[in-house]
Amino acid sequence: MFEVYENLADYIVYTTFGLQKGERLSETIHFIIYDTLKIFTLLIVIIFFISFIRSYFPLEKTRKILSKHKSIALPLAAFLGVLTPFCSCSAVPMFIGFVEAGIPLSAAFTFLVASPMVNEIALGLLFSLFGFKVAILYLVFGIIVATVSGYIIDKLNPRNLIEDYVFELKFGESQIQELSFKERLEFAYHNVKNILKKIWLYIIVAIGIGGFIHGYVPQDIVENISKNAGVFSVPLAVLIGIPLYSNAAGILPVIQALILKGVPIGTALAFMMATTALSFPEFMILKQIMKPKLIAIFASIVGISIIIVGYLLNFIL
Fold first, then answer.
1. Residues 222-235: pLDDT tens digits?
2. How many CA atoms lie within 13 Å of 92's alpha carbon, on the beta-carbon side?
3. 290 pairs with which residues across the strands?
4. Domain chopping of the chain, boundaries
């Protein structure tokens, strides 16, 4: 499918630049050129297609459904999280909107975890890079992490750990307007444009890091670190991932390079989950609406859930 990009990267690196195959520099540049073309192509196609589908399910309509059908709010919140490609920080306003709408806290927290960690962009890229099985397992386990985290947090009854003003905010009701086919295409186009505008730099940086790992980090070093960490490799990956702020599309080139270097898929995906679902910038925003104790509970539950999933993925894959 991407053979033309492979040939173009070959031509640029080996013909235009005159570099030799197998050298560290040539392998790094080849990785960066090929992955940049491939990932941005995938992003444009996936975001456009899913945005067109999402035009039939505006967030306001979904929020009303969740408000009216609270018995199924939690799985619906997880499903909504899959359909919304928010980063962890961008998901916070929707979390507030859920609370304001009277949606159970379990559903609100489920969305807060699911939206940045499991979305259509991540799944599309995972499928294209690692295959159907990895993408489906990531989807299933990601939804389980989000759902279990939301359920446990709700059972702890954290109402008193959330600022009162959050429950008093009123965002108003927006008009749900039916769109024409042309307007849906325009919506998808603008969504592609807006999302890429926000994430393109993260992706370029991540591809650069991935290229460096691919070209300059010896495979035996990565394998030795992974082996020496032993049973602690997954928790270590999660701890390293938390300070790093990225979205799923941005971190995937790094994940790809790590897996190529011998890092177990479960460990790498646990790192990805931690990077997308838990981040210091997200904690700083959450601090404005909830007390540090609840942030610590939230991070602990999600982090432990991700670690368990990492071990399970390593066992399965």
1. 566 666 777 888 99
2. 17
3. 162
4. 64-164+206-316
Tens of pLDDT, residues 78-89? 887 777 666 655
Query: Which of 208, 205, 214 has its CA nearest to residue 263?
Result: 214
State the residue for tokens 């020496």: 228
Written as six digits, the tokens of 114 are 């699911």
**For the segment 169-207, what is each residue's pLDDT rounded down to a tens digit?**
554 444 445 778 888 888 888 878 887 787 677 778 767
d(CA 160, CA 3): 56
Q: Is 231 exposed, middle or buried (0-12, 13-18, 19+ CB in 10 A)?
A: exposed
Q: Which of 284, 285, 286, 303 lies closest to 294 in space, CA to CA?
A: 286
CA separation for the pair 267, 307 (Å, rounded) = 8
DSSP state of 290: B
Place of tokens 């039916």: 178
